[in-house]
Amino acid sequence: MAGARIGVRLGAGQARAALVGGGDIRHARCHSGDDRVLARMLRGLAQGTPVRSVTWDVSAELDPASAGSPVASVRVMPRPPARGLGSGHPSPLLPALVRRQADVVGGHDLFGVELATLDIYEVFRTAAAAQAEGIGALALTATGAVGCPHHELTAAELVREAFPRLRVSLSHQVGGLGLLDREAATVINAALLSRAEQVVERCVQISGRLGASTSAWFVAGDGGRISAERLRLLPVLGLSATGAAALTGAARLAGVDDAVVGLAGADGLSVGHVRDGLPNVATDRPGPGGVRMAVPQASLTPMRGSYAATASAFALLAEHDQHTAVIAVAGADPDGDARDQAATDRARTAAARLPSTSVLVEPPAELAAIGAAGTEPSAWLDTVLYAETSEVLARKQAAAEQRALTLVAESGARLGSERVVSSRALSLSFLRSGSYRLVVRAGGRAEDDA
Amino acid sequence: MKRAGRPSEQLTVDELVRYGPLGHAEMLVGENLARPVSRVALISDLDQVRHCGPGTAVVLSRGLALGAWAVESALRLAWERSAACLVSPAVVGLDQATAQLARRMRLPVFVVTGDTAACALDLAAAIASPEAARARLAARCAELFAERSNARGIVGVINSEVPGVTAALVAPDGHVLAGQASVDRAEHRVQVDVPGPDGRRWAELVAATAGPSSPTWAETVLLILRLARGPLAASVARERLEAVHGAERGRAALRALFAPPDPGPAAQAEPAGRDRGDEGRAVLEEALGWRVDGRHVAVFLRSGTPLDTAATGPGVISAWQEVIDDLPLVPWETGWASWWTGEEIEVEQVASALRRHLARMRSPIPLSAGVGRVAEGPEGLRESLSQAMLAAGVTVRDGPGTVRSFDELGFRVLLASLSQPELVGSARMVLADLLSAPDGPVLVATLAALLDCANSTSQAAARLGVHRNTVLGRLERIRARGVDPDRPDQRLALHLACYALLPEVS
Amino acid sequence: MTGRSITVEDVPALLAGAEFFSTSAAGEGIEFAGFWLEDILARTGPVELVTADELDPDTPCAAVGAMGSTVAMAELPPSGEEPLALARSLGGRFGAPLGAIMPLNAASVNALHPVAAAAVLGLPLIDCDGMGRVFPLIHQTTYELAGLSLSPLAVVSAGNDSLLLDTGSARAEQIARSIAQAAGGWLLCGMYRTRVGLLREAAIHGSMSRTLEVGRLLREHASDGATAQALAGDPPWPEVASWPPHARPGDGESSRRGTAPHEHLLRDLMAATGATVLGGGRVVELGPSTRQAGTVYPGNPTSMVVHDHDSGRLIRLEAHNELVLALADGALTAAVPDLLCLLDRGTLRMTGPERLTVGDQVDALCVPAAPVWHSVHGLGLGGPGAFGFPLRHPRQEGR
Question: What CATH number does residue C167 fall under?
Answer without folding.
Answer: 3.40.1610.10
